[in-house]
Fold this protein.
Amino acid sequence: MNLISILEKSIKIGVAIGALIAFASILAISYMTIEGSTAIVLYIVWYSSLLTGSAMIVLSYYTLITIHKKISNDENNVAIPTNEGNMQQNPISELLPSNESLIYDIILEHNGEVRQSAIINESKMSKAKVSRILYSLEKKGLIIKMRSGMGNVIKIVRKK
């Protein structure tokens, strides 16, 4: 299970809890027939729980949107060479599952364009596994696969 799926699940739980709190507070206020100072206290509790539930929903969706923007709109979608000539970790790679991250980093090490056979050799994965991972990366819009003779050339999609 990767970081994104864990975050998405926890955010969905936050939305569900927030909705449950808000719904329960609305139900509770509809059955209130108490008058006097006790009613004021209950209204304050009801209002604060409604705000808490609503805030949980808003913050959860904001977090989810932020995560998806980081994945889909990252314009710095290139590896950055350091002084030693090594490549720094790409922000996209950090958000991908380990096998996808490994393949993505191999493509980046080849300046964003590499033959599929080279990926198979460098990753030490089977042809089928590399093919499935490349399909997943292509579906996410991170790479494109182009036919070249008997093989494929894989290119990183550059955001403009």
